[in-house]
Amino acid sequence: MSLDSSSSLHPALKSGNFLPNLNQVEEGTHLFVSLSEMVLEHIFYHPCYAAAELALDATEEASIQAILGDLPVESHFVSTLTDKIIAAVKPSHKSIRVALSGADSHSYRSLLGGKIELAEVNPALGIRGVSRYARDEFKVQFSLECQVIKLLREQNIDVEIVVPFVRGLSDAAKIIDLLAEQGLPRGLQGLKVLYTVDVPSGALLSERLLHYFDGVVINLENLTQFTLGIDCLNEELEYLFDPESEAVMQLLDLTMNSAANSNKPVVLVSSGFVQYPRLQDHLAEQTNIELVVTA
Q1: CATH number at residue 82
Q2: Cβ contact 18:269 at 8 Å
Q3: Domains in the chain: how many in total?
Q4: What is the structure's pLDDT at 22?
């Protein structure tokens, strides 16, 4: 859901831009980019299929070759994502926040060559975020995503890295090390790294996690889903899905207080924020929070 002039958004809340598939939401000072969404919308093939020497059927092979043209996978992947992000940057944007892959194995299995993904029983709670970047079979994708960020920085674009699905302190330490190995150490030439609260542990440990990061992004729908134990895509349970529940609100407050105590920014990402007036009222007095409403 995108914002428009008729949306009932609290006037005290400010909004930024979100770039899942190049649909701008509203003018803002920051651009928020989801690389996993861009892969699903613009790349269409799994970036690790070639490195894994995956056996493709003739149709898949022909489809991928039609997408790549004469380019190798690495060049096509990096140039496609980089060019689309650069094209979306506006003079009003003070920084570009680029979220590394946060999609689950179910989403990536839908790509050409997606059979490289494990068939997990519960993908939503499976190999995603830092646990994905650290696995050998997915290191190619992580490296390519880091190349996108480095190329943007070489174009003098102020990029901040956002790390989805940080589940605990070990994840925090691991991703900082992995980024440094890719030539993206936190603090180098002002490089900032934020983490995403997708699960309750990211909120409960926020005070300690923020020692590793320069800010926090709250994925409201993910946090609600995992806090209440409700599949947000299950229509039979839709009546129970409530981002304004006391449990979710307490986790939001805990995260925002930790960020305020650390003097670090909070970004709230939501696809249905205009539907939650009580939550809008609750957040309106927060001075260090930025809102990103997704399509």
Answers
A1: 3.20.20.60
A2: yes
A3: 1
A4: 30
As a whole number of angstroms, the distance between CA 167 and CA 188 comes to 25
- Residue 3's pLDDT is 27
Residues of the chain scoring pLDDT < 50: 1-8, 18-27
pTM higher than 0.70 for the full model? yes
Is the CB of residue 252 less than 8 Å from the CB of residue 203? yes
- pLDDT for 6: 29
Spatial distance between the Cα atoms of 231 and 235, rounded to a whole number of angstroms: 9
pLDDT, position 274: 87
Q: What is the pLDDT of residue 13?
A: 54
Whether 8 is covered by a domain: the verdict is no
- Cα 288 to the center of its chain, rounded Å: 20
For the CA atoms of 176, 182, 186, 192, the dihedral, rounded to the nearest 10 degrees, stands at -110
Is residue 70, in this structure, part of any structural domain at all? Answer: yes
- For residue 163, the enclosing domain spans 17-293
Q: How far apart are CA 35 and CA 102, in angstroms?
A: 8
62 Cβ contact list (under 8 Å, min separation 6): none
Structural domain includes residue 6: no
pLDDT digits (tens, 9 = 90+) for 255-272: 999 999 999 999 999 988
Structural domain includes residue 181: yes
Instruction: Identify the sign of the CA torsion 177, 178, 182, 187.
Output: negative
Q: Which residues of 68-92 are buried (b: 16+ CB within 10 A; e: fewer)?
A: beeeebeebbbebbbebbeebbeee
Q: How far apart are CA 162 and CA 192, in angstroms?
A: 9
